[in-house]
Design brief:
515 residues, alpha+beta, Elongation Factor Tu (Ef-tu), domain 3, 7-stranded antiparallel beta sheet, rod-shaped
Amino acid sequence: MNQTLKIILLLLVIALVGAGGFHFGKKQTASETTAKKVPSEQKILYYRNPMGLPDTSPIPKKDSMGMDYVAVYESENASSGSVAITPDKLQMLGVRIETVQRRTLTRSVRATGSFEVDESKQQWISPRFEGWVQQLHVNTTGQAVKRGQPLLTIYSPELESAAREVQLAHESGLAEMEASARNRLDNWQIAPEDLAHLEHGMAHLVLRSPIEGVVIEKLAVAGSRFAPGDVLFKLADLSSLWLQIDVSEQDQGALHIGQEVEIKVDAYAQENFSGKVSFIAPVVSEKTRTVRVRLELPNKDSRLRPGMYANVIITDVMKPALTIPLSAVIDSGTRQVVLVQVTEGRFQPRSVQLGARNEQYVVVLEGLNENESVVTSANFLIDAESNLKAALGGLANITAETAHSNEVKKEKISIAKITTHKQIAKQLSKPEAEGHQAQGTLNAINADGTVNISHEPIKSLGWPGMTMNFALTNTKLADGIQAGSTVNFELFERKQGEWVIRKIQVASHLHNEGN
């Protein structure tokens, strides 16, 4: 019996040992299979800096803050130009996303100009006969006059002779001679009441103001002789004025006849005046690349005066179009790029063609579709990382072994010298457009990010000195510059007729697009 028990126990032990060995072997095989499967699907090419800095490592390491370097896999690197960012890093960078939407934008065009006399409301006093100034009733420039008010009294022997000829012809019954003499007086614009006065033997004639206005120029002098056609007075009705402004060529699409405009003058800083666009020049100035625009506005209280300067804001409501926030655009000077969210946490840079803009949004002509998502904040950091990955990825596409070769090490050293996104972009993009140096006075930094500068003549462009608005390649270029400062700046033609500032200098401090 004892012998039988021993045999049974021995068989149980053997069975248990066999089952355990089978289970352990199966588990070990599964682990080996998984271990072999992961490297084949997720092959690590290199490790990159977790903050997007241009630093990589062939082995795992930590940065100065103790953060682990992020592994870059072969499958991830296959998406050329894109970059994947973990949710915690997205939150740390403050990344914000906004969809491409169709909006109706309102844009503002700003310009400066000066008031002028309305040419259609001027009147010159210029007799058509010879005579002498006998007496001046209005004798100062700037004096206000009423319609019909006497301006001066004149004496004209020629006028007296014509009047007597009418009288004699009438008394003699010579109808044709009388008609001829009367036609001559009519051509001299002698009013019927003045003719009756002359026919009574009075050779003196009073010239009166034909309009209500002011004397803008007095040329008559008491006792002086005048010839036919000589101007004795220049009068103007100032109840309405013209305001002449120059608008940049690229902004002329925002203008149309009858458009309401907002006008501000320094003399009345707390008031807004309104006017209308009455004329848009049919030609563009070849030297300044601007369009002359004439505005009309009422001036019944005569507070506005010819020669005063004014700031003009022209508002234009554009047609609905696809738009993105201005903050989503990365402008390198030669092209405009936005970061598109391809999938959750993965972004890809995309070139776009842009149109009109206002202070917040810009119209997208090509490159994006409605409801796509673009990055509006921290896009420079993401784009810097994307450019770095693209540069490294081009070297790592052949094999994983090539990525760790001496050639890759040389490339890493070269890339490590690049410390900013702009430097990377310059190495990967086209050469910069030709720049033109200029000097002027910074008048104002506008709300739309542009600057108003009164610049001196620019010889390389053949431009005369003038005041105009310029866009900046980076709105931070003007940080720290006070209005009224004398500045040196460099501008270039971003596209046909669009001149943009990419560098600006005050004293010895340089503000350029890399800062």
